[in-house]
Predict the 3D structure of the following.
Amino acid sequence: MVARMRDALYIGILAGMKRRFVAKPLKLVIFDCDGTLVDSQHMIVSAMTQAYGAHGIPLPERETLLSVIGLSLGEAFTKLGNGATNFPAESLAAHYRDAFHAMRRPGAPVEPLYPGAAEAIAALALRDDVSLGIATGKSQRGVRMVLGHHGLLEHFITIKTADDAPSKPDPGMVMHAMREAGVEPTDTVVVGDTVYDITMARAAGAAAIGVAWGYHRAAALTESGACAVIHDFAELVPTLEEIWTVMHRSRQVWP
């Protein structure tokens, strides 16, 4: 027991040192989850199909369903309703949750990571001047289960979800994460696959990187204000370095 307490204290001290005593300003990289770190489209579309089927409502096209990934469930189904009178958005969301949780039975497949995701996160986690966060429309339980399954949970010092703040593109998740990490907006970059991620980042005063392998078109991410759009996780760290170099130069005071 004493040894475990000593180990926990030691880990806490190291975490505090990373946040407070780095030579360079601490930088925060906030990742979206669905469509950015993990490919969850098959599970999401399956749960939506079951929710619509339970209500006897025609299922929208697959592209339309994917277009709302990233929003909280209530917001997503409201958007899919297109303003229709008495559209059962909340009931659809409840049926979706039930269907999705049923797919999480013990031994069932878990959303796979995109190629290179684990390696990119591991590389960033090794840096003393970088902290990692999550901002997702998933629930806390859902995102922690997925990250834990893939052995990534320990790398994130802040995880913000639809349980903690308004739906994207509201900047609340990013602002809460920055406060928790003790990092300024000018040192924060959000990485995501939808225009909701990019708009959320910009509204919080942070930079944004779009990923082209997710659920929104690369052109739409650029139009929403992404500093860059990458096509492979191998491009992430070099792109972050370019953004951080620009940030550093903007702080320099010339005589």
